[in-house]
Amino acid sequence: MKQLFYAFVIYVSLSFVANAANCVNCHKTVTPNIVSDWQISKHSQNDVGCETCHGSEHNSASNVDKVSLPTPETCKTCHELQVTQFSKGKHALSWASMKAMPTFHLQPMYLTEGMKGCGSCHKVGLKSDEEIKQLKADGQQHGVASCDACHTRHTFSKVEAQQPQACQTCHMGFDHPQWEMYSASKHGVRYLLKQNGILPEGTSAPTCQTCHMQNGNHEVRTAWGFLAVKLPLPQDEQWKNDQITILQALGVLDPEGKPTALLDVVKAADVARLDQESFDKERNKMLKTCGNCHSEKFAKAELEKGDKMIREADHLMAEAIRIVAGLYKDQVIPKPANYPYAFPMLLTFHDAPTVIEQKLFVMFLEHRMRTFQGTFHANPDYALWYGWSEMQRSLAEIKELAEQMRKDKKG
Length: 411
Fold this sequence. Notes:
Layout: H1 2-30, H2 32-39, H3 42-45, H4 50-54, H5 72-76, H6 80-88, H7 94-99, H8 118-122, H9 129-137, H10 158-161, H11 165-168, H12 178-184, H13 186-195, H14 208-212, H15 237-249, H16 262-269, H17 276-290, H18 296-329, H19 355-376, H20 380-410
Helix pairs in contact: 1-2, 12-13, 15-18, 18-19, 18-20, 19-20
């Protein structure tokens, strides 16, 4: 029996070497850097050959269209824990959350399915079999895989994915400049100095992964979620009313404050914590992480400052929303036909039809985000000047525009 087992192992190993050699011989000429990346990877050192991820149907220049690209299910064969965690997390839902946006379909295909705009980052999300089939039909096979968003092909390096720069491509810019906030914060500065050898190796310097992927957990969640709204609503009466107004402008609550069908979409996309238990779970995870460097009292107080800045930002945001809703109600500007209620729809983004509605969108997705995200990331410039200060200025502009529009309406 032992002899049969050893013979089988030798056969498999020789088959691996032979098949990999065939691929390597060709691709050394066609795509040499892919070959060199694979050769320095852990995969090549552990008998994970080209066929393991790409199948065996493509074996010559005449059938390149037969090559398969790996999906998380492919990776799960060896990395079951990580894929299981990822499947439960927010990144897995990023494709669904992108497609749930009301005016997503108005963007050029090259920015969406073409992976040059939203789709380029949101491709990390899991897709249905039908979506994968359509992507392949459109020649967009590079949109099928997910794990390679952080573990770049063909090294699929764990070390690369552990660096904060691995998050930079997606977590930067207009609505979520986490990279800019982190890299200019004391946490980020210490890490970059440590990387450059200026600070010694043992220096405490947290990365994105330290705080958001504790112990390598691939769920990657936060307590407040992307939109900084949650249920149950706050007990503070002012904040409660302000959050209701924001939820109405997100289409999640109707004018009477009752849940709409869109709430199910928000649940499915997991962009908000919808019960106290899930919020507390993520908050306690973060407190434990902060406790590795700070006292529990200090960490708790700092996170509560973030909560309170959301409260302050929400008060400005809700006032601006009510001003625009009042313009609809008084027929100063027409309510767009595709809006279900007499509330502005913040998730229409740049497709909002008037300048005042555009300013409201920017106030929400850029300035409100920076106010609370800058606070949580310990970046004072983003929290104040790019966040809170800009919200104040936006509100002043919206008030002035609304007043002028009412005067013009009266003639």
